Amino acid sequence: MTSLKRAHFAAVAALVLLVLPFVPVPDFWITQLNYIGLFSLVVLGLVLLTGVGGLTSFGQAAFAGVGAYTTAYMSTVMGLSPWLGLVAGLAITLVLALVIGALTLRMSGHYLPLATICWCLALYYLVGNLEALGKYDGLLGLPALQLGDFSFRSERRIYLLIWAAALLAAVGVTRLLDSRPGRIMRALNTNRGGGATMPEAMGASTFRYKLVMFVVAALLASLSGWLYAHMQRSVNPSPFGIKFGIEYLFMAVLGGIGTVGGAFTGAALVKLAEDQLKVWLPVVFGGSGNYEIIVFGVVLVLVLRFAPEGLWPLLARWLPARGHKAVDEQAPRLSARSHPPRGAALLDVRQIRKQFGGLTAVNDISFTIRAGDIVGLIGPNGAGKSTTFNLVSGVLPLTAGEVELLGQRVDGRGSRAIARAGLSRTFQHVKLVPDMTVLDNVALGTYLRTRTGTLRAMLGLNGAEEAQARAEAMRQLRRIGLDGQAHELAGNLALGPQRLVEIARALASDPSLLLLDEPAAGLRHKEKAALADVLRQLKAEGLSLLLVEHDMDFVMKLTDRIVVMEFGRHLMEGTPAEVQASPAVRAAYLGAEE
Ligand code: ADP
Ligand code: MG
């Protein structure tokens, strides 16, 4: 218990940074650290947006420009307080980020980076040509920041503001990543096997979280720009152009994209290296030029090749391990939904159909599930089971037919609405967040039973609810027998346990109906047996299940009723014994094996 934790280390580092201007360190250090703090603020936004969310922006320098120019114009031309300039700058940034984000974030991956490049270039030339903003000379004579009688005129003084902002932002981003919204954000990164399907199935609007990340990153950049403007006491377009947009991204990648420590590491390394290179490279190559860009390019390639996670993870190895928060199992329970009584109508699938071009993958399939039932949906490969599953769970739109869940029409309503109506699911290809703990992955399933938003999480006001979510996650892990592995990274588990974690995550949403897509696929014999035990236990607890499965033996022992599909059609329906005895089913399976 007395061992030094990562959090203690961070606190000591923060303390050292904040007392530095009060001790006689050289002014040069302070200047350098001011820049590093300002860069870190911007890069922290990229950690969230690019590292965590997988969304690339080259436009962060432009958002810094918005913050800088707004306060410059308001304080010099209009004679208003820099604090008003801060509020106005953040407000303008917010609107711009919402507009740019809304226009591009619904589109596929490449549109955002392209849009941010355009936005950065456009702003640069606009500002450079506007008479009111002093064209390429910029605006001079900004006032120093003032708080009461205390003026942040000197570098040593504004240092305090810069580092207070950077450290608070670091705390905010750290908290956010470890919260209800953060779990969704971490699940979105397509570069790490994530995407929209799973978060949507847990009830989260992925578009909304992408937009939130984009806005938070833009606001951090804008804040950095405001501080920069009042540190320099002047602004001009050059630090807000595309070159800096690229450099910020470079800092994020070099430091370790996706980690808060990486933001500071990258900002520090680039700033310090740039200064040295600016001195030495012209000596080596002669003349003057931006030779450091060449060096950075080479370094970037080397880092991506040999340390793709950036340099921070290499440094972090020397730091004390990150302690995991204890789970308070006495925390009050999250609200539960009222489930239908055993035997009540739960799911009614009527004549659903799905066509992919000329192929009818699902051809007028109907079946019902009553509360407490375990129904199997089987058929040879390509029979249309997964498609049926996706139609019922709202991942795919129906061509025709109706789906009723608990008396409520849910066809055409999308997977978020269906999750809210009480259906939860697992995935044939496991969709866990590999670099998140098992416990956090399961806690993601409590999304619809919790409320915490981004701001609340960043301010650390979500403690009580977070404790409830974690306690619920632990309870579900115990239910499936994986509580012992709660604090391991999900990516370190074998496929069998991963499938069980997915079930626990689905259970954490307190569903009335649980859909499992090929839970036994790819499992070894022992893992299959463990899975069957869990499913039997869930059945005994009265849970309703739809089990889509290719493996007939696995389904036979577990289900009350089985629906058999072949070539998209309904082949037969009956008890396991009836299905087993059916020559038509045997022929379908034999035909498919050939
Ligand atoms: P199963 O899960 O029973 O193995 P699927 O539902 O995955 O079967 O597939 C049923 C049929 O629909 C297959 O012929 C498959 O190739 C086709 N199919 C599935 N998804 C798509 C899609 N997105 N676009 C076109 N065809 C698809
Ligand atoms: Mg399938």
TrEMBL record:
It is a multi-pass membrane protein. One of its GO terms (cellular component) is plasma membrane. It holds the Pfam family BCA_ABC_TP_C. Residues 347-592 form the ABC transporter domain. Keywords: ATP-binding, Cell membrane, Hydrolase, Membrane, Nucleotide-binding, Transmembrane, Transmembrane helix, Transport. Gene3D superfamilies: P-loop containing nucleotide triphosphate hydrolases (3.40.50.300). The keyword Protease does not apply. GO terms for molecular function: ATP binding; ATP hydrolysis activity; branched-chain amino acid transmembrane transporter activity. It is found in: Cell membrane. Its main location: membrane. InterPro entries: AAA+_ATPase (IPR003593), ABC_AA/LPS_Transport (IPR051120), ABC_transp_permease (IPR001851), ABC_transporter-like_ATP-bd (IPR003439), BCA_ABC_TP_C (IPR032823), LivM-like (IPR043428), P-loop_NTPase (IPR027417). SMART domains: AAA. The chain crosses the membrane at residues 6-23, 35-63, 83-103, 110-127, 158-177, 211-229, 249-272, 279-304. PANTHER family: ABC TRANSPORTER ATP-BINDING PROTEIN, CONSERVED COMPONENT OF ABC TRANSPORTER FOR NATURAL AMINO ACIDS-RELATED. This is Metal-dependent hydrolase. It comes from Roseateles puraquae.
